[in-house]
Amino acid sequence: MSTYGDDAADPTGAAVVPDQADESGTTTARVIPRPTAESFTTAGLPAALDRLRAAVREITYPLPLPSAEAARQVANAIVTQLDSYLLPRLARMDAPLLVVVGGSTGAGKSTLVNSLARARVSSAGVLRPTTRYPILVGNPTDITWFHSGALLPGLARAGEAGEEPGGMEVVAAPALDAGVAFLDTPDIDTVVDANRALATQLLTGADLWLFVTTAARYADAVPWELLHTARARGTVIMLVLNRVPPEAIDEVPAHLSELLAANDLATAPVFVVPESDVDGQGLLPEPAIAAIREWFGRLAADPASRESVVRQTLDGALAALTPAVTGLADAVDDQVAAARDLRERVASAYRGGQRDVDQILRDGQLFRADLLARWQEFVDAGDLFRAVESRGGQLRDRVVAALTGRARPERRLREALETQLVTLLQNTAADAAERAYASWQVHPAGSALLTPELARPSDDLPDRARRVAQDWQRDVLDILRGESGPGAGTATPPIGLTLMVAALASTAPAPQETTAPPIDAAAPEPSPTDGTAVTDGRTTLAAESVLRAIVGDQTAQTVISASRERLLTRVAALLDDEAQRYLARLAEAGVADDASAVADRLRSAVAEVEAARRAARLTDGAALVLPGTPS
Amino acid sequence: MTGIVDKVRDARDGERQVDVDALLSRVRALEHFLRAVDQHLPEQQLVPARTLVERASARLALSRDHTVVALAGSTGSGKSSLFNALARLEVSRVGVRRPTTAATHACVWGPPETAAGLLDWLGVLPRHRFVRESPLDGDDEAPLRGLVLLDLPDFDSVEQAHRHEVNRLLGLVDLVIWVLDPQKYADRVVHDGYLRHFHRHRDVTVVVLNQIDRLPDADLPYVLDHLRQLLEADGLDGARLIAASATDLRGTAELRALLERTVAERQAALRRLAGDVDAVVDRLSEFIGPPVAEDWIDRATIARLSDALATAAGVPVLAEATERAYRTRAAATTGWPILRALRRLRPDPLRRFRRAQQAEATTDPAPADPAAESTPTPADATPVPTAAQPSAVSLAVRIVADRGAEPLPAAWPHAVTTAARSRLDELSDALDRAVATTDLGLGHKPAWWRLIGALQWLVTLTALTGLSWLVTGYTLRALDLRELTYPMVGTVPVPTILLVGGLLLGPLLALLVHPFIRHAARRTRRRAEARLRAAVDELGREHVVAPVRAVLRAYAEARDALTAARADGEPQP
Q1: How far apart are CA B275 and CA B294, in angstroms?
Q2: Bridge partners for A437 per DSSP
Q3: Quick check: B184 and A217 CB within 8 A?
Q4: Which of residues 108-147 of A touch B (CB under 8 A)?
Q5: Beta strand pairing status for B147-151 and B67-73?
Q6: How far is CA B470 from CA A486, B492, B502, in A?
Q7: Is some CB atom of chain A closer than 8 A to the CB atom of B377?
Q8: Which helix (H) or strand (E) holds B421?
């Protein structure tokens, strides 16, 4: 790496004398402050920029948020700028000054460059856009540096014809002074997208941006946007107002100056080139561009001025990194927040489902029609009590069931329980999926991630819901076994069923003696013939009472709440699996969990760059004032 | 003959003849579409269509004798110069300072008052209106009578307000003359921002390459070629392209001739609107897919809904209970009285476990037990309403919603689901009511029960008579009062026959009747189930199927309307 200090010995040393001579004979109104070699050091910058580059490359914007597309472009632009300008420029502060000639299509950029080079290096023409690949023109002594590819490394160098896309033609023009090279760029406002992107990229490589516009164009919106970008980036700008017809020579430059002042660009020098016929070679008459040539001639002759320009642009570009990268970090934060928001929406939709299930169990809503009838049938058939009393009954029941071909009430109750649970879970999952879908649909990033099947529960949900119901039956038996001991003989399917019934419709642990009699007394006994006219409380109490009688009050409470808990846990797991389908979409899209750490890394990397920039003291803080305009 | 001539001319010019009635009927069809989809589709996506219907009606109601032509272009392309050249008057200020024209200027050929309404609608301020054609001109300007020429501000300068004004007016005018110049003819803002969006209006789009005086003559064909390529890329192939110069007046005669023809044809406004309708219909096409059969919500779907609703409301259980209740009650009436009493004495197995909270001994939650006669309840009395299982009802409704949503394009399923759910709350209550109030056919005791019951009593009485006779005889004999002689049938005394016969006949009768009761119980069950199902089915149709069908009908209507809005337009050449 060559730092400023290394190079200072030769070029600046040679330049010092004429500089001093200039200053002593102060006839030239040069206000560029002369840099002193000790005043700045760029030592810390390249390393900090490398780290920043790594941090910027690391970020992704998986969610299509409004800020994401812009951020992606900014990130690309930052990396491009680091690669094509900042890093190479820091490595060689003394390299020739690169003037990027930019502007609207048809503004006459190529003609201007040709005229300055006194050769037809870039084809000018009437078809828009004329220039489709960048052409770099410089003094033969400077050409080697530009050929080396350190600057704008993304562009392949082509000697003569840079026809292939992504190439840059480098042409030597002896008419140009050494020290300043010109880059003719494609247009910024043509219909050719690739051109526009390339032009924007090339602008980031400019030490000095020569903006060419015309009397017809100077109020166009597109170039002004670019001027704003350049101003924000701190690039040194000068303007050429081209093709000014004689009748406009008074009014238009004045209006342009007004516009520049209004846009905070008053320091940019403006050169006016009147509308003039080109000669046989397509070059402008020398008097029209004499002022421009002279201006660049002075710049080329004075390494100190050149360096001031470079340092100004460099400093501006470095300073502009902070807001740009902060914007990137904010966009990452947006991503994090959006991902969190989307996750939260799904979670809340499925939490709602969980709450619904809980509520429905509490309300005893499940104990309607079918299940209620089966429960009563089960109780009446006496399975339960035979199960408690003796084992012989079961065998007899089985024989009877086998002979009569009728399903035993126990099995029918079990099936009814299962069916009701499955129905409940299916509906809950469907509702939750719908809610989650709707909540994502109204989110800009969420709607992009949705697929139609997310609107409904997964296809195998009925099976899994059934498994939940079946597993829960086993759980209930385990709980009974665990509570009353394996030898107690209570862990039988009928008692398990009773426990399930009690758990499914049970509210919070009920006081034993206080509520039971009033409920029983208050409500008349249900009509057995209707099969529906039973309120749930009593069913529950019946089941609870049965359990109390069998396993004791205390144990009954314990097992009932344990069973409920177990069911709710299983339901939660099921709903979690359903919600996972949404979260999987997020993961597929590439939402990383540690994205906020990325944002932090970005912020600290750019803070480091900013610190290094301040330490480098590239400018003395005052805006660089270029030699005034001829007007 | 003229038809062929017209066709040939159409083919040459890329113009179509738009019949005003056809256009009106297309606009009406669009209106119809909007009415049909109202409430069903997201409103914001219908805004362009609504705007168009409104605008078309307004434009057609205003002067159709006038043709509104706008000069649009980038700043500095010479719109105002061209405007003045066409008007042959210094109307619009020409300047070098960009952007020059800030407000829209209008020049009217012919009596100004006839165009006043149109200009008001266009929003051109009175002080920017100019009248062409004065007595001095003689008949020179007569061919342009009916022309309203607008000079628009630019659309690419830093002045945002200009862009808004241009965008507003471009939506209203009949014909647009795009004024481009050699410097800017390939600008992105011109092509991507504007021309590309006018590809449906190529017959009311004219592109003028202005300021050709600034081009070397030799280069002009190349530039025009290139511009034509760009226009083709914009979808504007066939749009008229004229090279002109407001300075040396090249091409202005051609432009004027074109305007004269346009004014004479009185077609521009109609073509413009026809193009707009094309564009809107195109955008609306995403809401319309294949046709959906009227009976898409078919019997099978409704049957599934009814089944699910019936299960949710407990119909099968209720039907089963009805059968048991029938048997229980029949047994209560027709059973052997002695056995009835014995059965009543049978202990309820649950009682032992309910002793703790036993409130009254008669409670018996045993509907399954046919012998539980202690709590006979008239089934027709409205029982405590218990809501149908809500999840099951909700799940049932999904059957129809899913079926209805299946064939529809993406924007519709939401409407279908909403419609299917629209009366969900009502449905649950209505199901409860239906289940509670449906006559289960247990209201009265059939006559034959009474007959059998009377017979049972008779038989029992007979047995009792025999018994008491025998007891009397035994008592008398035991007390040695007197010997009672029984009448004899063969070797068996009559009281014995009475007793034994009575005792045997009762159960026999019950046994004989049993199959009938079972049969009748099953029949009652089937009847009750049929009634319950009919009630549930009706509710399902009314509360779920009907709203969904309404959406499907709206879709069909919208589809027809859009087809009408599309089909009436003549195909573009």
Answers
A1: 33
A2: none
A3: yes
A4: 125-129
A5: parallel
A6: 62, 12, 13
A7: yes
A8: helix B413-421
Q: How many CA within 13 A on the CB side of residue A606?
A: 23
Output the pLDDT for position B353: 27
State the Cα–Cα distance between residues B248 and A426, nearest whole angstrom. 80
Concatenated DSSP letters for B83-138?
HHHHHTS--S---SSSS---S-EEEEES-HHHHHHHHHHHT--GGGEEEE--GGGT
Task: Check if A76 contacts B (Cβ < 8 Å).
Answer: no
Which residues on A lie below 8 Å from B187 (Cβ)? 104-105, 128, 189-191, 220, 222
pLDDT digits (tens, 9 = 90+) for A449-481: 888 888 888 889 999 999 999 999 888 888 888
* 10-residue averages of pLDDT along chain A (631 residues): 36 33 36 47 83 88 85 88 87 86 82 87 71 82 80 68 63 87 80 72 85 86 84 86 86 89 86 84 86 88 85 88 90 89 93 88 72 74 57 55 62 85 90 91 87 87 92 87 64 78 61 33 34 44 74 81 90 93 88 81 91 82 54 38
**What is the CB-side half-sphere exposure of residue A51 using CA atoms within 13 A?**
16
CB A152 within 8 A of CB A141: no
ipTM of the complex: 0.71
Q: Which residue bears the tokens 């006043």?
A: B116
Q: Does A87 touch chain B (CB under 8 A)?
A: no
Chain A to chain B, count of Cβ pairs less than 8 Å apart?
Answer: 261
Which residue in chain A has the smallest CA separation from B315?
A: A369
Please list every residue in chain A whose beta carbon sits closer than 8 Å to the beta carbon of residue B327. Answer: none
Q: Are A432 and A461 in contact (CB under 8 A)?
A: no
Instruction: Name the residue of chain B whose CA is nearest to A520's CA.
Output: B359
Phi, psi of A592 (to 5 degrees): -90, 155
Instruction: Collect all residues of chain A within an 8 Å Cβ-Cβ radius of residue B77.
Output: 216
